[in-house]
Each structure stands twice: as structure tokens, then as C-alpha cells.
């Protein structure tokens, strides 16, 4: 209550009564609402051009320096349209998505709820505990968003036991590659409601690839391009694969994209998103940096960032592919992270796997884990891949939006192995 002369609206921590005495000029939340009750709800609009700025967001920084991205008047329209079309957000829905306004999902959630006539459910505290899961029940949330690492924590702690999540009619997830078993568990909490996968970026103000309630869904997979967008999958020479052909490669986005940014405040926009990208049907494709796979059944799986691709014995693979296999190698594992290390003296890349245990107070022999990872990878992925290094850690470094920072793990391992070689 001290340190500023600005008028404050004081919100009770719990219930309706304030636990403090407001300063002269301050107002309680209850008084604020009562004063506003008699006023007209009609306001004169302020007209602005479509490219007028509304806010500035920073990218998560998973692959490098965060980019300062200005949003325009078009971005909220894109947010609301995407969730209306793909998540079926409608009036009388109650939406909840653990996030913050520093991550793109914060503004997306605000615009998605309010432009579609839904109610926004806000929880004060960490979404990792049972308190949040109970809030979802008590607030009667009907559209629940999450990130895969959150679902993994809810499942590991069995935090929804005894709770009723049947008011949820649509689930959504973004931020990381989903685990199929975790998605099955999450859906089962809601009487098997659909989970819509979303993948996009701050610079797009939306997702370029999503699930759709109008198409069959598969856990951990996407149905196709978001409404009004398009993309191709590129081979190693930058040539687009034919449509409907099962394949894997870097995605190239169609450049005409409603709501996408056309400038950055701390970097060269064209250099970041367009330089070096191929021409497709007379237009230069937009870079996004994801590696995606198109399956035999025309589903899509995001395999991680191009920056997280590794070359093991002359075969390219992604961190996400290896992690999916390793996560099921031992029941005591909470999650794994796979990175490749280039030896200081040269030679082929070496595979390193870091692991977080469900019970972090127990010790575990890294050599036993190494053997289990090796068997699982050889049996389920590729018999030629060799695990060179395994380390158990208490937790992984993450961005504010809970994305795994593999580049930080890679740098830490390089330094650790370099120090060992000096001894």
C-alpha cells in the first residue's frame, strides 16, 4: 500500500472483505463495481488503422535471443477467429489456460474469450498443484488449455483424483510436443473429450497448424493447417514434398498470413523469417523453424525445432523422437531431454540424455538408465543410434512459458565434458 501516489483499486485476497485499510483516495473492488453498475455499457469506438500497435510481446527465446514482436489491430481478430474455428469457443463457455501475459498464450486467451463471448477463469497460484485442478472443477471450466509438461505433472501426482472435470467439453495443448499416454490420461479425466493440438508462434499471433473438431483426432497429432493458412514440408534441398506424401522435414509457411507480424523491433524481420527460403508458386515461403512429419493417415506430428535436429551416424533425427522413446524406458521417469554433443577433438555427434525422476529424493544409477535407454532406442527407433552419456538432474531449464531449453542443456553439458577432459 506504500510507495506510490497513484489511486489503487484494492482487491480482497479471499472472500469479499478487505484485510487492510485503504488509503485516502483508494477504492475497494466492491465499491469500484458498484460505481460502474449505473454507467452506460456503450462507449464510442476509437478508430485506428489495421497496422496500429496494441502491444509488444517477446518470443520465448528457446533457440536464441528473444525477439521483440509488435502486435497490431489484426492480431486479436486472428486470435478470436482461430479459437472459434478450431476450439469451438462460444458464448457461455468458461475458458482457462495456465499462462501469463508475457507469453503469447496470455493475450490469445484474453482475446479468444472476450471476442467470442466466453468467460475467462483466472487462478492465482501455481497450476502444478491440486489447488489448480480443484479450481478447474469449482469454476466449471468448459474449455481447458494446457502445456504437456503440466499434464505430465498432474498425471504423476494423480492430482485430479476425486475431482469432477466432466464440465470440460474441449481440451487444448500447446508449447511442446505432446505425449500420447499423457494425452490419453488427460482425456480420460473428462470422459474422453477431444484434445486439440495447437502449434504456432508469437510472430504469427496464432497457430499455423492445429487439430479440428470437424475432423478425426489422434492423440499427439494435428489435423492440418489452421483456417486460412497453408504450408509445405521441405526436403533437405529445400524442395517441397508432394501433398499427401508421408514425409518429414522443415515446414515452410505460405507468406500471406492474416495477423502475422511484418516487423521486429530488435532484429531484421526479412532476415529472420524469409532470407534463404525457397520460392513456392511465385512467392517466397516464410520460415518458422519447426520440423514436422506427415503420417500415412495424413496427420501431422511436430518433431521439434530445426535447431534441435541431430545427426547420429549419418542419420538425421529430432530430440523429440528420442525423448518419446526414452520417456517410457523406466516407470520412475518423469521426463527426459535428448541433445547431441560434438566432441572437442572432432568426430561424429554423440547422443546425451538427461533425465528427471518422479521421486527426486531417490538416487538412480545412471549406467542402468543408459542401458534401458539404449535398449528402448534400438528396439523402437533405430538400432544404429548409440547413447554416449546419461545424467540424472533435479529439473530442466525452461522459459517463462514452460518450454524446455535444450540449448542451455547442450551448453552446460559441453562445459561439463570440457572440464572433465582437462582433468
From TrEMBL:
InterPro entries: AMP-bd_C_sf (IPR045851), AMP-binding_CS (IPR020845), AMP-dep_synth/lig_dom (IPR000873), ANL_N_sf (IPR042099). It catalyses: (E)-4-coumaroyl-AMP + CoA = (E)-4-coumaroyl-CoA + AMP + H(+); (E)-4-coumarate + ATP + CoA = (E)-4-coumaroyl-CoA + AMP + diphosphate; (E)-4-coumarate + ATP + H(+) = (E)-4-coumaroyl-AMP + diphosphate. This is 4-coumarate--CoA ligase. Residues 44-251 form the AMP-dependent synthetase/ligase domain. It is an enzyme of class 6 (ligase). It comes from Aegilops tauschii subsp. strangulata. GO terms for molecular function: 4-coumarate-CoA ligase activity; trans-cinnamate-CoA ligase activity. The lineage of its organism: Eukaryota, Viridiplantae, Streptophyta, Embryophyta, Tracheophyta. Its EC number is 6.2.1.12. It comes from the Eukaryota. SUPFAM superfamilies: Acetyl-CoA synthetase-like. Pfam families: AMP-binding (PF00501). Transmembrane segments: none annotated. Its cofactor is Mg(2+). GO terms for biological process: phenylpropanoid metabolic process.
Amino acid at each position: 500500500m506504500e510507495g506510490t501516489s497513484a489511486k489503487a483499486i484494492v482487491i480482497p485476497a479471499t472472500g469479499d472483505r478487505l484485510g487492510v485499510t485503504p488509503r485516502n483516495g483508494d477504492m475497494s473492488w466492491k465499491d469500484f463495481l458498484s460505481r460502474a453498475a449505473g454507467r452506460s455499457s456503450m462507449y464510442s469506438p476509437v478508430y485506428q488503422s489495421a497496422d496500429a500497435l496494441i502491444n509488444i510481446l517477446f518470443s520465448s527465446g528457446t533457440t536464441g535471443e528473444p525477439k521483440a514482436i509488435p502486435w497490431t489491430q489484426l492480431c486479436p481478430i486472428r486470435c478470436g477467429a482461430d479459437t472459434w474455428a478450431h476450439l469451438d469457443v462460444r458464448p457461455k463457455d468458461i475458458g482457462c489456460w495456465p499462462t501469463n501475459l508475457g507469453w503469447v498464450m496470455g493475450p490469445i486467451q484474453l482475446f479468444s474469450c472476450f471476442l467470442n463471448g466466453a468467460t475467462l477463469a483466472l487462478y492465482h497460484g501455481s497450476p502444478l498443484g491440486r489447488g489448480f485442478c480443484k479450481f478447474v472443477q469449482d469454476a466449471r471450466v468448459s474449455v481447458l488449455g494446457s502445456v504437456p509438461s503440466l499434464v505430465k505433472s498432474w498425471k504423476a501426482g494423480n492430482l485430479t483424483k476425486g475431482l469432477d472435470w466432466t464440465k470440460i467439453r474441449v481440451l487444448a495443448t500447446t508449447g511442446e510436443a505432446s505425449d500420447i499416454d499423457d494425452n490419453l490420461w488427460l482425456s480420460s479425466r473428462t470422459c474422453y473429450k477431444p484434445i486439440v493440438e495447437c502449434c504456432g508462434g508469437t510472430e504469427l499471433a496464432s497457430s499455423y497448424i492445429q487439430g479440428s473438431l470437424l475432423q478425426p483426432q489422434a492423440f499427439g497429432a494435428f489435423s492440418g493447417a489452421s483456417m486460412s493458412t497453408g504450408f509445405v514440408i521441405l526436403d533437405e534441398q529445400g524442395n517441397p514434398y508432394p501433398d499427401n506424401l508421408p514425409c518429414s522435414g522443415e515446414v515452410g509457411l505460405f507468406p500471406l498470413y492474416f495477423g502475422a507480424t511484418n516487423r521486429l523491433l530488435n532484429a531484421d524481420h526479412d532476415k529472420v523469417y524469409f532470407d534463404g527460403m525457397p520460392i513456392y508458386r511465385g512467392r517466397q515461403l516464410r520460415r518458422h523453424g519447426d520440423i514436422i512429419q506427415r503420417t500415412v493417415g495424413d496427420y501431422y506430428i511436430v518433431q521439434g525445432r530445426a535447431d534441435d535436429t541431430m545427426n547420429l551416424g549419418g542419420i538425421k533425427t529430432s530430440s523429440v523422437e528420442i525423448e518419446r522413446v526414452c520417456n517410457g524406458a523406466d516407470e520412475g521417469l518423469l521426463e527426459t531431454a535428448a541433445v547431441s554433443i560434438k566432441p572437442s577433438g572432432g568426430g561424429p555427434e554423440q547422443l546425451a540424455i538427461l533425465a528427471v525422476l518422479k521421486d527426486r529424493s531417490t538416487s538412480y544409477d545412471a549406467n542402468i538408465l543408459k542401458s534401458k535407454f539404449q535398449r528402448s532406442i534400438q528396439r523402437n527407433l533405430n538400432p544404429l543410434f548409440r547413447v554416449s552419456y546419461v545424467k540424472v538432474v533435479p529439473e530442466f531449464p525452461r522459459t517463462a512459458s514452460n518450454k524446455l531449453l535444450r540449448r542451455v542443456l547442450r551448453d552446460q553439458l559441453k562445459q561439463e565434458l570440457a572440464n572433465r577432459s582437462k582433468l
